[in-house]
TrEMBL record:
Keyword line: Membrane, Transmembrane, Transmembrane helix
Domain of life of the source: Bacteria
Keyword Transmembrane helix: yes
Protein name: Uncharacterized protein
Species lineage: Bacteria, Thermotogati, Deinococcota, Deinococci, Thermales
């Protein structure tokens, strides 16, 4: 094995990370399924939008703006409010990254 290769912090760490990630995703699905379409879309887009690399925040904000415009135009509340929440999440990511650098 190459000494420069990264090793797991402990045996099975990647499996533990996978289990935690899947459990959080299932929790998000359960929470969002109990909400009306608008808040559910906003919840998902905002939470997942916070995980975006700051380098790509402007592109995701543009996508959120397009989704919001098309969602409101087509009377699709999940898409519309999801787009609004994505724009807000990207603004938060951008400002957080800018403040930290």
């Amino acid at each position: 094995m190459d000494k420069s290769a990264k090793r797991e912090p402990f045996p099975g760490a990647y499996y533990v990370g996978l289990i935690i990630t899947l459990a959080l995703l299932l929790l998000m699905i359960v929470i969002a399924s109990a909400l009306p379409p608008g808040p559910a879309g906003a919840f998902f887009a905002f939470v997942l939008g916070l995980t975006v690399n700051p380098k790509y925040a402007p592109a995701f904000a543009t996508a959120g703006l397009i989704a919001a415009v098309l969602g409101f135009a087509g009377r699709e509340p999940m898409v519309a409010w999801g787009g609004v929440a994505l724009v807000l999440a990207q603004a938060l990511v951008y400002l957080w990254h800018r403040r930290g650098s």
